[in-house]
Q: What sequence folds into this?
């Protein structure tokens, strides 16, 4: 007999596997021409409490990365995002780290410990983020947006540096 946790794991794995072809097909072409534009017409606060208009990033290639302090894969992925931002920001690339934590006070110290060198935004209470980039089926979730605002690639789980560099080379 299969345990309930084992069943849940098998269902989750099957779901991710069924989604993989569409994610990889879009990634192979970098951007699917039929992808919708991301709505960037809203404002959220960063970890310092400053308001950030997402529309200020129009014209840049943006990786919106949804993560949480309690997410172990997120912790593993953050150094890669730090390096990518450092290496590509002068070419018009930006990473926006969006915390989905309900414990907002924990986000700033976490970002400092992880040496996050890109803007870290507070996503708690902002359903419009889910409307623009969701739905979220796991964390981390990353959404790559072209300079014109079109959503190119959506990845649930950790993103590989090699795959992101391939996409960035085509978009920058």
A:
């Amino acid at each position: 007999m299969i345990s309930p946790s084992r069943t849940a794991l098998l269902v989750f794995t099957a779901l991710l596997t069924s989604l993989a072809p569409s994610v990889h097909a879009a990634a192979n072409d970098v951007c699917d021409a039929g992808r919708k534009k991301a709505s960037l017409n809203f404002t959220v606060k960063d970890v310092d409490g400053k308001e950030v208009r997402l529309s200020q990033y129009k014209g840049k290639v943006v990786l919106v990365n949804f993560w949480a302090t309690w997410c172990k894969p997120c912790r593993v992925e953050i150094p890669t995002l730090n390096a990518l931002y450092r290496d590509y920001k002068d070419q018009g690339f930006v990473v926006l780290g969006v915390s989905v934590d309900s414990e907002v006070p924990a986000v700033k110290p976490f970002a400092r410990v992880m040496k996050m060198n890109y803007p870290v935004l507070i996503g708690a209470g902002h359903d419009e983020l889910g409307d623009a980039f969701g739905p979220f089926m796991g964390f981390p979730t990353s959404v790559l947006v072209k300079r014109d605002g079109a959503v190119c690639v959506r990845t649930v789980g950790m993103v590989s540096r090699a795959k992101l560099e391939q996409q960035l080379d085509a978009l920058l």
